[in-house]
Amino acid sequence: MIISPSAVNLGYILRSIPHSSFKMDTFNDRLRLQKLVYMVEAFGVYLGYDYSWYLRGPYCTSLARAGFELEQIASEIPPHAKAEFMYSETQKKFKRATRFIRSIMDDPDDLTRLEIASSLHLLVVTTNMAKPDIISRVISKMSGLDIDRDFLSRSCEDMWRKLCKEDLIPDERK
Fold first, then answer.
1. pLDDT band per the 50, 70, 90 thresholds, residue 149
2. CA 134, CA 123: separation in Å to the nearest integer?
3. What's the pLDDT tens digit per position in 43-73?
4. 92, 90, 117: which is closest to 103 by C-alpha?
5. Helices 112-126 and 131-142: crossing angle, nearest 10°?
6. CA 119 → CA 22, 85, 90, 91, 141, distances in Å?
7. What stretch of H or E contains 58?
8. What count of other Cβ atoms lies within 10 Å of the Cβ of residue 137?
9. What is the per-residue pLDDT across 2-51, written as a single tens digit (0 to 9) for each?
10. Are residues 12 and 82 in contact, defined by beta-carbon separation less than 8 angstroms?
11. How far apart are CA 73 and CA 86, in angstroms?
12. Is 107 left (phi over 0), alpha (psi -120 to 50) or beta?
């Protein structure tokens, strides 16, 4: 198997992100990878992955491929490795992203808020939809997860405020 440099870079980046994993065994493992890396990019740290809307929000095929490659070489990435960016501004953005991720996830299996944050952000930056329509779309895509719709609605509103506070989305979409 030929391992791409992006898989190695991804390993160093994931070592620096709270609640990340090199596993790709389950759907939740793959979902976590997609949403964690998406949120890092949302903070302005471009890692080379381009996303589109998929069944569960932002998805990138090349990131999935890099994740499977990384799984094969996980033991080659030092346990205490950390991502170091060439530019201090990029490093600051990365630290902001990791703080945000830590603030919305209690543990690696706590994916609901991460999925909501990434989905809201992608819809804001790629569509002209109004806030109520964006929230409705996120709730409808997550409604099959056996999560109470009122809880999802409150979680979306709360996450919208958090994303606005981080200047990731404007609060002007009424």
1. confident
2. 6
3. 999 999 999 998 889 999 999 999 999 999 8
4. 117
5. 140
6. 22, 26, 23, 24, 10
7. strand 57-59
8. 18
9. 556 678 899 999 999 989 989 999 999 999 999 999 999 999 999 999 99
10. yes
11. 24
12. beta
**Could you give the CA distance from residue 174 to residue 99 in angstroms, rounded to a whole number?**
28
Do residues 66 and 60 make contact, with C-beta atoms less than 8 angstroms apart?
no
> What is the CA 19 to chain-centroid distance, rounded?
11
**For position 6, what pLDDT does the model report?**
79
Gap between the Cα atoms of 93 and 13, Å rounded: 13
Q: What does the alpha-carbon distance between residue 153 and residue 172 come to, in Å, rounded to a whole number?
A: 19
Coarse DSSP helix, strand, coil percentages of the chain, rounded to the nearest 5 percent: 60, 5, 35
pTM of the model: 0.93
- The radius of gyration of the chain from alpha carbons, rounded to an integer in Å, stands at 16
